[in-house]
Design brief:
Layout (H helix, E strand, L loop, with lengths): L23 E3 H15 L5 H10 L9 E5 L5 E8 L2 E5 L7 E4 L11 E6 L15 E3 L1
Antiparallel strand pairs: 1-6, 2-5, 2-7, 3-4, 3-6
Length: 137
């Protein structure tokens, strides 16, 4: 906890399997990042909200919530969840900087990959995305 006013600082966990290509993410890394974010944020959440989340299975484990994950760079063209021969196109938000991930779905293993295709193929010309994980109902 910081001894500063709320909203003056922003943080997000940065968990990434080192051997992955720049345009891929690992589902297990994103699940861990979600759990870390909630572990820190829950202390500042109202008691009623914490009780609600506990009742539905948790911040990152409930199918009743939507988890929006930011792409590492702005301008994503498509995002696909890939496990063996199983592929699922994930919806991008309107600004193309985050996608809805079924993070709670245990039929996908932690080793499931998320492939991201960007409008800009040259990684050096892409703008980094500074958004954080968002949860919605």
């Amino acid at each position: 906890m910081l001894n500063r006013k709320k909203k003056l600082y922003r943080w997000q966990p940065a968990i990434r399997t080192p051997s992955l290509p720049i345009d891929q993410l690992r589902l297990g890394d994103l699940r861990l990042a979600c759990e870390m974010e909630w572990a820190i944020e829950k202390d500042g959440a109202p008691l009623v909200f914490r009780m609600f989340l506990n009742a539905i299975g948790g911040f990152c484990r409930s199918g009743k919530l939507t988890v929006s994950i930011p792409t590492p760079y702005l301008g994503a063209k498509s995002v696909t969840l890939v496990q063996a021969n199983r592929r699922l196109d994930l919806p991008l938000n309107v600004g193309k900087f985050s996608f809805i991930l079924p993070i709670h779905d245990q039929t996908y293993s932690d080793d499931t990959m998320i492939e991201i295709v960007y409008d800009e193929p040259n990684v050096n010309l892409r703008k980094p995305n500074l958004s954080t994980i968002n949860i919605g109902f």
